[in-house]
Amino acid sequence: MKRLSALALAALLILLILTLAACARIPADSQSDVLNPDANDKISVIATTFAPYDFTREITGGKAEVAMLLPPASESHSFEPSPQDIVNIQNCDVFIYVGGDSDAWVDEVLESMDTSKMKLITLMDCVDVVEEEIIPGMEAEEEPEEDEGDAKPEYDEHVWTSPRNARLIVQKIANTLCEVDSLNAAVYTQNLIDYSEKLAELDGKFQEVVASAVRKTLVFGDRFPFRYFVDAYGLNYAAAFPGCSTETEPSAKTVKFLIDKINDEQIPVIFHIELSNQKMANTIAEATGAKVRLLHACHNVSRDDFKNGESYLSLMTRNVETLKEALQ
């Protein structure tokens, strides 16, 4: 995973100081709401990725300024913040990030600034996390050699893919918003109740699909960010790469494994995730006759989806129908 080098961080900090000094000289009415939340009496919230951004939109209901740091259609695992991003983080009231390896830059940035006046929410602290696993047929990403004593477990960071985890995450977000903005606490609390009910309904739909399924295995010709999802619903899976892998080209051995898996178990669908080039899934589909389908992990969205107001609920509801097709 990419990390900010000491030199790059130093450069960013210098730019940060200069930018903050410049901002101090700009009239309040010329700054954005995120940079100057007092201009409209709304608190400002920044989330690194789409899922927590969308959760926060639902809970705040327009009572706060909510921004997503990762641009739509961007790859989150290689993201590095710009100096302006760092300024925005410094000036926000609540900062929400995942907490996994792809967010390694966050700790370095937060250590460089005074966070005493902001609330921090780490998604991986909201739920019980599991270690990322390498299963048969899956290619592990090559990692630098480490001494046995230095090796640390790598936890799967895609915690929001389970609607049950999503309910725990939005509870934490709502509680934090109520602390920061007590004047709107009643609104946040009611929105939490309403949204939690919708997540419970979504959970029930997935349970119904799995209960009536004739098979319990999903196959991905792609990375696999759905560990919490399959664990929640008792599903099995095969995939080319783990969820946070930066690899895109599988070996012939991996492709053959997935082709044999589909043929042997007569699996009708090969999945890819959002913003993927789909090359591997298409190759496997041509060899097996399986249909290529998107299972959306809600890590990020395309520019069109963002512009059209797609949400975690709308994308995951679409997943319900796609899952039904795969398990029939």
Main sheet characteristics: 4 strands, parallel
Report how far the terminal alpha carbons are from each other. Answer: 37 Å
- Residue ranges: pLDDT <50 for 5 or more in a row? 1-8, 14-39
Oligomer: single chain
Number of helices: 11
Could you tell me the number of beta strands? 8
Structure explained in plain terms:
With 328 residues, the chain is an alpha/beta fold. It has eleven helices and eight strands. The strands form three sheets. Strands 2-1-3-4 form a four-stranded parallel β-sheet, with helices on both faces. Helix 2 links the parallel strand 1 (43-47) and strand 2. Helix 1 (6-25) packs across helix 3, helix 2 (50-60) packs across helix 5 (163-180) and helix 5 runs antiparallel to helix 6. The chain is globular. The two termini are 37 Å apart. The model is unreliable at 1-8 and 14-39 (pLDDT under 50).
What labels would you give this structure?
disordered N terminus; alpha/beta
Short description:
This protein has 328 residues and is an alpha/beta fold.
